[in-house]
C-alpha cells in the first residue's frame, strides 16, 4: 500500500471514530439531560456569585461566612423564582380557561368575514387544541422545575465546598504551574464573558418586561405580572424569544378584550417595544460583549433546543461563548472559533494559546 493510500486510510479511520464519538456524546447529552441541565445552571450561578464572595473576602469577611450567606441567598432566590413562575403559570392557565370562550367567539366571527375556507381552517385548528393535555404538560413541567431547583442547589453547594481546592487540583492535573495558570485564566475569561452577557441581558429583559407591564396596566388588563415575567424569561432566548413573548402577550390581550381593534392597537405597542429594544438597545449593549456570529447563534439554538428542549435554548449562548473561547486558545481548533465569532476575531485581547 502506498503512503498516500495509508494516509487516506488513517484519515477515514479518524473521521469514522470521530463520528462514533460524537454519536456517543450526543446520546449521553440526551439520556442525562435533566442532570446536565441542572449542572449547567449550577455552574452559571456559581460563576455569578463567586466574584461576590471574593469581594466579601477582600473586606475581611471569613470565607465560611461569605459562602454560607451566598448559599442562603441563592437558595432563597431560586425557590422564590420557582414559586413565582409556578404561581404565574397557574394564573395564566386559569384565566385563559375563563376567557377561552370569548377568544373562540372572536376567531369565529373573524373567520366568517374571511370566507368559508378560512372558517373551516380555524374551526379545525380550534378543535385540535388539547387543553387537558396542555394542563397535564404544565403540571409536569412544574414538578420538574421544583426538582431541578433542588438538584441545582445541591450542585452549587458542592461547588462552593470545592472552590478553594480548584486551583490546586488544576495545577496537579497539569503538572506545571505555568500551564495551570493558563487554564485558570481561560476559565476566568469564560466566566467574565458569560457573567457580563447575563448581567446585561438581565437589564435589557427587565426594561422590556417593565414596558410590557406598563402597557397591560395602562390598558386595564389582567395578567400584567404574568406577561411581564414571561417577557423577562423569554427574552433570554436570542432571536425567537421576543417573538414568542409577543405572540403570548397578544393572545392574552385577545382573550381578555375580545375586540380585534383593541388587540391590534395593544399588540402593536407590545411588538414595537420588542422591535426597538431587540434591534437597537440589544445589539448596542451586547455587540461587544458576545462577539458571536448571528448565524452561529441560530445554529446553537437549533442544536441545543433539539437536545435539551426549552432549557437548551436558554443555555445555548453561554455554551457557545465557552466553546468559542476554548477553541480560540487551541491552535488546531482556532478555525472553529473564527467561524463562531462575529468579525472573525474571537478574542477581545491578543491571543494567548494553550500549549499543546
Description of the molecule:
With 356 residues, the chain is mainly α. Helices cover 85% and strands 0% of the residues. It has helices at 3-31, 33-58, 63-114, 116-128, 131-161, 166-174, 177-218, 224-234, 240-257, 260-290, 294-308, 310-329, 334-340. Helix 9 packs antiparallel against helix 10 and helix 12 crosses helix 13 (334-340). The longest helix is centred in the first third of the chain and has 52 residues, at 63-114. The two termini are 32 Å apart.
What are the salient characteristics of this protein?
mainly alpha; single chain; 13 helices
Would you tell me the overall average pLDDT? 77
For the termini, the CA-CA separation is: 32 Å
Helix content: over 70%
How many individual β-strands?
0
| Rg for CA atoms | 24 Å
Q: Any idea what the shape is?
A: globular
Largest sheet: none
Low-confidence segments, given as residue ranges, are: 349-356
- Beta-strand residue percentage: under 5%
Topology order in helix (H) and strand (E) letters: HHHHHHHHHHHHH
Q: If helices are DSSP runs of H or I spanning 4 or more residues, what is the number of helices? A: 13
Structural class: mainly alpha
Family: Belongs to the autoinducer-2 exporter (AI-2E) (TC 2.A.86) family.
Pfam families: AI-2E_transport
Keywords: Cell membrane, Membrane, Transmembrane, Transmembrane helix, Transport
Subcellular location: Cell membrane
Amino acid at each position: 500500500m502506498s503512503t498516500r493510500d495509508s494516509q487516506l486510510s488513517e484519515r477515514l479511520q479518524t473521521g469514522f471514530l470521530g463520528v462514533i464519538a460524537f454519536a456517543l456524546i450526543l446520546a449521553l447529552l440526551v439520556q442525562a439531560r435533566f442532570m446536565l441541565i441542572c449542572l449547567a445552571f449550577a455552574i452559571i450561578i456559581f460563576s455569578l456569585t463567586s466574584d461576590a464572595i471574593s469581594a466579601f473576602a477582600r473586606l475581611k469577611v471569613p470565607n465560611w461566612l461569605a459562602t454560607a450567606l451566598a448559599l442562603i441567598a441563592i437558595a432563597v432566590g431560586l425557590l422564590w423564582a420557582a414559586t413565582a413562575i409556578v404561581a404565574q403559570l397557574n394564573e395564566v392557565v386559569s384565566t385563559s380557561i375563563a376567557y377561552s370562550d370569548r377568544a373562540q367567539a372572536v376567531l369565529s366571527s373573524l373567520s366568517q368575514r374571511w370566507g368559508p375556507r378560512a372558517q373551516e381552517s380555524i374551526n379545525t385548528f380550534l378543535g385540535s387544541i388539547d387543553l387537558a393535555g396542555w394542563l397535564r404538560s404544565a403540571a409536569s413541567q412544574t414538578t420538574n422545575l421544583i426538582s431541578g431547583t433542588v438538584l441545582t442547589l445541591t450542585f452549587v453547594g458542592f461547588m462552593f465546598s470545592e472552590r478553594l481546592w480548584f486551583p490546586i487540583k488544576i495545577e496537579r492535573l497539569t503538572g506545571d504551574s505555568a500551564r495551570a495558570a493558563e487554564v485558570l485564566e481561560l476559565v476566568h475569561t469564560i466566566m467574565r464573558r458569560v457573567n457580563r452577557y447575563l448581567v446585561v441581558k438581565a437589564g435589557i429583559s427587565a426594561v422590556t418586561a417593565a414596558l410590557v407591564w406598563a402597557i397591560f396596566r395602562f390598558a386595564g388588563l389582567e395578567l400584567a405580572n404574568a406577561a411581564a415575567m414571561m417577557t423577562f424569561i423569554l427574552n433570554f432566548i436570542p432571536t425567537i424569544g421576543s417573538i414568542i413573548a409577543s405572540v403570548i402577550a397578544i393572545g392574552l390581550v385577545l382573550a381578555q378584550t375580545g375586540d380585534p381593534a383593541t388587540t391590534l392597537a395593544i399588540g402593536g405597542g407590545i411588538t414595537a417595544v420588542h422591535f426597538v429594544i431587540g434591534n437597537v438597545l440589544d445589539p448596542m449593549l451586547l455587540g461587544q460583549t458576545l462577539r458571536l456570529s448571528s448565524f452561529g447563534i441560530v445554529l446553537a439554538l437549533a442544536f441545543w433546543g433539539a437536545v435539551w428542549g426549552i432549557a437548551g435554548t436558554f443555555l445555548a449562548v453561554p455554551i457557545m461563548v465557552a466553546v468559542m473561547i476554548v477553541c480560540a486558545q487551541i491552535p488546531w481548533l482556532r478555525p472553529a472559533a473564527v467561524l463562531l465569532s462575529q468579525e472573525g476575531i474571537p478574542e477581545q485581547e491578543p491571543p494567548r494559546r494553550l500549549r499543546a
